[in-house]
């Protein structure tokens, strides 16, 4: 039914001409003079740097969507998750030890050892860690979302696409903005301010600050508290030096996240559905407490949790024009500390020594990461027969990650043959320490064969070297699942525990690896008219292998892709209407996947492996229109057919594990990929009108939708999110010159209940689900100066 409705809706939008391009891709401009001619009501030209040079969005021969800073403010798009909801084919899912970004059904799994298949960049600096995407948007000029492999310009890890954030730069014109928002339903608050001004005739500066958080929208009946309870701080200092042939931009960012009750996940399939057997220990603890409702309803009885992140990032961009060439240097530094804790609804066995909290499986995650990167590019002038770019790139990073588990929900000491005293709370820590370096050279060239025909060539060679060591410890645990210093058990007890209860002991079988790849690409571009262009491309991509970090010793090999894309970008009726269509077909070999299953003790663990082969193909449609009446309509629709072509040893579903608890695998060849909804997209309508000569009103609505999709690579029906559509509304009144504005914002106004992530519950065949935000209503005041 959903598929039929979406098809019909998309057809109606195309036929009527009332659709618009991806909400982000089309920033709509209107003349300030209300008596302007109709020709003034045209779609504003969007400038992007998707190919590391300034270009008009409609001239870039790839599939790219752009969200301007003003549109993010209007739509209250404050995080990558908000952004992903509104762009077809993009899914952002927050999990536990790591998050996942997916474009066109391709992303990385939930393990600290993965680098993301969707590469994230801030002012050209690569940020490899997935949980950094939780940091909210602050004073951005725009966000570019590039779909499909982007190896030449963005490197070996952009195998599925790239997110490129561009911050607002200082200028010689004094300017600033400020806003304050308060949400009545969940106590959300968001205060932002940014101001920039010249310091000398060549030097300018800008400062941006943000303080945001909320009280929470999920009620924990066990703790009698709401969550997530967030308290986040962000700050940025930027400096810019401008001369006739030199442009230097430097910025430093700081973020401090202190999120309490951060993972209040709801519990499903408890009691189990028919065929799933009797409730496990974890589910029984929920039932016995009278807290089992078995549905998504913003109510849970899980244990406590928190998430803390401190990060510093910096970028130095130097562009020096020398004759007919520009030499550009981009230097980046990034570091963060993460401290995460989560508890399950399991209760500890009675009498555990020193345990004072009702915590049956406390888990503590620690992650320290720092990286340095340097890129140098030489770019020729535009306009000649040959335009070219040459570049070198280097980065170096270190990752220290650990997971500590307290095994308190059963008398596990009894399995160690008397090696430890009765009632000893046993905890295990598994840690990895990885050093990585990446060396690349790349080149791109455009042959202007004729005024209306161009051949774009690109290539990149990357060599990635990694070293990783793993260690595990078992000792007497505390309330947070950490073992106390000096409390490690004997060698005999350690061997018995890791062999029958806990996680595998010891280092990885292989502790060093080097992966390298040459990645060519070709793109043909032909101008049908001044405002219409057709293109076709062949692109290759690569992502290096690595190791799981945490509770397994799994390792995985490299991942590669060959991708074909063809598209048409066109503007009509004096650029009042813009249509962009792209069709793609990509084949992935050695796709890196992970899923969560329960080990012999009932504890969730990640299973990581390379899929044999996978295929993704589909169509992206973006159309934009703006009418002289002040009405703007926009929509983006994506169709996706993503499936495993070869996956012979895939993890089993929960139902299959009941029949075969150990050694269970399944063949997923021909099955739909996880995080790959068949249909997704969004529709936007906005109407602006004058109330007086100085005051203007505006009404806006955003409808975004997705068909159903699986949230684990096991393709388990228990981990399936049904299709849904959500509606956001916004009404504003403000000065025509934007000096002030008051807005009422409603998000998810129909209160559609969905979950962004599902996983297996500890010691049970039940499911835990991370529920998305409920309906919220907020008031925002803002000013520009």
Average pLDDT, rounded to a whole number, is 88
Shape: globular
Rg over CA atoms: 26 Å
Count of β-strands: 45
Biggest pleated-sheet summary? 22 strands, antiparallel, barrel
Sheet/helix structural class? mainly beta
**What percent of the residues sit in helical stretches (DSSP H or I)?**
under 10%
- For the termini, the CA-CA separation is 49 Å
Unreliable stretches covering 5 or more consecutive residues:
1-43
Strand content: over 45%
Quaternary structure of the protein: single chain
- The total of helices stands at 7
Description:
- With 785 residues, the protein is mainly β.
- A hairpin with a 6-residue loop joins strand 1 and strand 2 (55-56).
- It starts with a helix and ends with a strand.
List the helices and strands and how they pair.
Blueprint: H1 2-16, E1 47-48, E2 55-56, E3 64-68, H2 69-75, H3 80-85, E4 90-93, E5 100-103, E6 106-107, E7 118-122, E8 125-127, E9 140-147, H4 151-154, E10 161-167, E11 175-183, E12 189-198, E13 203-214, E14 218-220, E15 225-227, E16 230-242, E17 246-260, E18 266-268, H5 281-288, E19 299-300, E20 305-322, E21 325-342, E22 363-380, E23 386-407, E24 426-450, E25 453-477, E26 483-488, H6 491-500, E27 512-529, E28 532-543, E29 546-547, E30 555-556, E31 559-572, E32 577-589, E33 592-598, E34 604-610, E35 613-626, E36 631-646, H7 654-659, E37 679-690, E38 695-706, E39 709-710, E40 720-721, E41 724-735, E42 741-747, E43 755-760, E44 767-771, E45 776-784
Parallel strand pairs: 7-10, 14-19
Antiparallel strand pairs: 1-2, 3-9, 4-5, 5-6, 7-8, 9-10, 11-12, 11-45, 12-13, 13-16, 14-15, 16-17, 17-20, 18-44, 20-21, 21-22, 22-23, 23-24, 24-25, 25-26, 25-27, 27-28, 28-31, 29-30, 31-32, 32-35, 33-34, 35-36, 36-37, 37-38, 38-41, 39-40, 41-42, 42-45, 43-44
């Amino acid at each position: 039914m959903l598929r039929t409705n979406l098809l019909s809706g998309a057809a109606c939008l195309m036929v009527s001409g009332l659709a618009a391009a991806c909400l982000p891709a089309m920033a709509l401009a209107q003349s300030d003079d209300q008596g302007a001619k109709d020709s003034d009501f045209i779609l504003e030209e969007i400038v992007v740097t998707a190919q590391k040079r300034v270009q008009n969005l409609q001239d870039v021969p790839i599939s790219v969507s752009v969200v301007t800073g003003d549109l993010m403010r209007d739509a209250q798009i404050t995080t990558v998750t908000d952004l992903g909801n509104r762009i077809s084919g993009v899914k952002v899912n927050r999990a536990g030890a790591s998050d996942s970004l997916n474009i066109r059904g391709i992303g990385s799994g939930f393990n600290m050892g993965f680098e993301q298949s969707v590469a994230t960049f801030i002012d050209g600096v690569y940020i490899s860690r997935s949980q950094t995407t939780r940091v909210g948007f602050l004073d951005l000029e725009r966000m570019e979302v590039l779909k499909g492999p982007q190896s030449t310009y963005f490197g070996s890890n952009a195998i599925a696409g790239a997110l490129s954030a561009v911050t607002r730069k200082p200028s010689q014109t004094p300017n600033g903005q400020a806003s304050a928002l308060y949400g009545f339903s969940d106590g959300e608050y968001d205060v932002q301010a940014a101001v920039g001004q010249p310091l000398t005739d060549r030097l300018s500066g800008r400062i941006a600050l943000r303080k945001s958080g909320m009280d929470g929208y999920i009620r924990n009946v066990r703790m009698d508290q709401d969550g997530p309870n967030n308290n986040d701080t962000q700050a940025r200092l930027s400096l810019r030096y401008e001369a006739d042939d030199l442009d230097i931009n430097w910025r430093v960012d700081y973020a401090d996240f202190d999120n309490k009750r951060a993972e209040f996940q709801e519990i499903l399939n408890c009691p189990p559905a028919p065929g799933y057997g009797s409730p496990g220990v974890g589910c029984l603890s929920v039932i016995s407490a009278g807290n089992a409702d078995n549905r998504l309803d913003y109510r849970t009885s899980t244990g406590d949790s928190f998430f803390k992140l401190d990060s510093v990032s910096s970028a130095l961009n130097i562009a020096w024009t020398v004759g007919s060439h520009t030499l550009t240097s981009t230097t980046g530094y990034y570091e963060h500390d993460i401290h995460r804790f989560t508890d399950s609804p399991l209760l500890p066995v009675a009498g555990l020594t020193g345990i004072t909290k009702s915590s049956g499986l406390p888990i503590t995650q620690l992650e320290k990461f720092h990286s340095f990167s340097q890129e140098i590019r030489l770019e020729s002038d535009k306009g000649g027969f040959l335009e070219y770019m040459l570049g070198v790139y280097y980065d170096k990073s270190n990752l220290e990650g650990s997971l500590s588990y307290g095994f308190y929900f059963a008398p596990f000491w009894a399995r160690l043959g008397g090696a430890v005293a009765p009632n000893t709370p046993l905890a295990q820590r598994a840690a990895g320490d990885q050093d990585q370096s990446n060396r690349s050279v790349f080149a791109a060239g455009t042959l202007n064969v004729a005024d209306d025909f161009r051949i774009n060539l690109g290539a990149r060679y990357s060599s990635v070297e990694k070293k990783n060591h793993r260690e595990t410890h078992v000792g007497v645990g505390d309330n947070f699942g950490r073992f106390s210093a000096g409390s490690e058990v004997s060698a005999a007890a350690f061997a018995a525990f890791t062999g029958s209860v806990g996680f595998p002991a010891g280092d990885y079988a292989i502790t060093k690896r080097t992966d390298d790849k040459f990645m060519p690409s070709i793109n043909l571009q032909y101008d049908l008219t001044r405002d219409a262009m057709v293109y076709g491309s062949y692109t290759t991509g690569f992502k290096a292998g690595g190791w799981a970090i945490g509770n397994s010793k799994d390792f995985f090999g490299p991942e590669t892709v060959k991708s074909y894309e063809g598209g048409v970008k066109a503007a009509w009726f004096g650029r009042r209407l813009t249509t962009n269509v792209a069709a793609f077909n990509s084949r992935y070999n050695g796709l890196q996947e992970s899923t969560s299953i329960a080990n012999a003790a009932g504890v969730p663990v990640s299973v990581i492996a390379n899929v044999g082969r996978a295929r993704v193909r589909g169509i992206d449609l973006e159309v934009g229109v703006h009418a002289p009446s002040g009405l703007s309509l926009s929509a983006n629709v994506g169709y996706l057919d993503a499936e495993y072509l070869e996956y012979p040893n895939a993890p089993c579903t929960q139902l299959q594990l009941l029949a075969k608890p150990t050694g269970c695998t399944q063949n997923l060849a021909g099955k739909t990929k996880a995080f790959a909804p068949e249909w997704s997209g969004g529709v936007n309508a906005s109407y602006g009108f004058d109330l007086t000569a100085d005051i203007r009103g505006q009404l806006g609505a955003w409808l975004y939708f997705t068909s159903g999709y699986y949230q684990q690579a096991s393709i388990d029906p228990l981990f399936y999110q049904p299709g849904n559509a959500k509606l956001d509304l916004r009404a504003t009144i403000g000065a025509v010159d934007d000096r002030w504005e008051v807005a009422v914002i409603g998000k998810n106004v129909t209160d559609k209940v969905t979950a962004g992530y599902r996983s297996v519950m500890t010691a049970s065949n039940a499911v835990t689900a991370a529920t998305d935000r409920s309906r919220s209503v907020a008031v925002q005041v803002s000013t520009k100066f």
